[in-house]
Design a protein that fits this description.
This protein is an alpha/beta fold and 246 residues long. Helices cover 30% and strands 26% of the residues. α6 packs parallel to α8 (148-161).
Length: 246
């Protein structure tokens, strides 16, 4: 029997036939505005509700803004940080600024993957983290796409090695068919793609699981909504050609 981690995201565990296999490193890719950050945050928040400590690695936004964004959905992580079961790793500010000085886990050089791995490993150990979200890994190899695979493998080593189940947000352009860098799809255990397509003058949100090691999963493209409580996926509906939902 495969040990699974329930994401708690409505409809997501259903299309994964029970949840993400434990220790899997899942690449969550999509274009701007598709809901990647929301989904990664929701994964961590739901983990906290299940008693599973989590870490958010902020590479593209100030840690203060990360907390504000989560709070907008009713996910106030402050008490969990005080309890020592949730942490934000600041890989954005480089420790510059008054607010940054109050952060516990700071990566002084956000472009240094080895330093990021060391800080992340320490944070995982400190709070016995079971879930990790990194937003976004693309930042680490945006200017050097040739190192994408090695960056992902370095992260995977620490994430899988410490027993965490993780979501790595990956940026792609609207028209790009890939998952965010050469070779990254081979290094990841799972790939989930979020899309936002214009169909007859209307934007349609959809999700598809391209691969997930250790489990069967739906091979269909399902519609989803972003609500004031987070993402809701409709596993009983399918987005067909030209965006028709059936």
């Amino acid at each position: 029997m495969v040990e699974r981690v329930k994401t708690g995201i409505p409809g997501f565990d259903e299309i994964l036939h029970g949840g993400i296999p434990k220790r899997n490193v899942v690449l969550l890719s999509g274009g701007p505005g598709t809901g990647k950050t929301i989904m990664a945050s929701q994964f961590l928040w739901n983990g906290l509700q299940m008693g599973e400590p989590g870490i958010y690695v902020a590479l593209e936004e100030h840690p203060v803004q990360v907390r504000i964004n989560m709070k907008q959905f009713g996910w106030d992580v402050k008490q969990y940080e005080q309890q020592g079961v949730f942490a934000v790793v600041d890989a954005f500010t480089g420790g510059i600024g008054e607010a940054a000085k109050r952060e516990k886990y700071v990566v002084k050089d956000p472009t240094d993957v080895n330093e990021l791995v060391d800080v992340l490993r320490a944070a995982i150990k400190d709070i016995n983290a079971m879930r990790v979200a990194i937003d976004s890994v693309s930042t680490l190899y945006l200017t050097k796409p040739s190192v994408a695979r090695s960056v992902l493998m370095a992260l995977k080593k620490v994430l899988s090695g410490t027993g965490t189940t993780s979501i790595l947000v990956s940026q792609v352009s609207v028209t790009e068919r890939g998952f965010g860098g050469p070779g990254v799809e081979h290094a990841a255990d799972g790939i989930v793609r979020l899309d936002l397509d214009e169909v007859e003058g209307e934007l349609v949100r959809s999700i598809i699981v391209w691969k997930m090691r250790g489990t069967s999963h739906s091979l269909k493209r399902h519609p989803f909504d972003i609500t004031d409580k987070g993402i809701v996926i409709y596993p009983d509906k399918v987005v067909k050609s030209r965006g028709v939902i059936a």
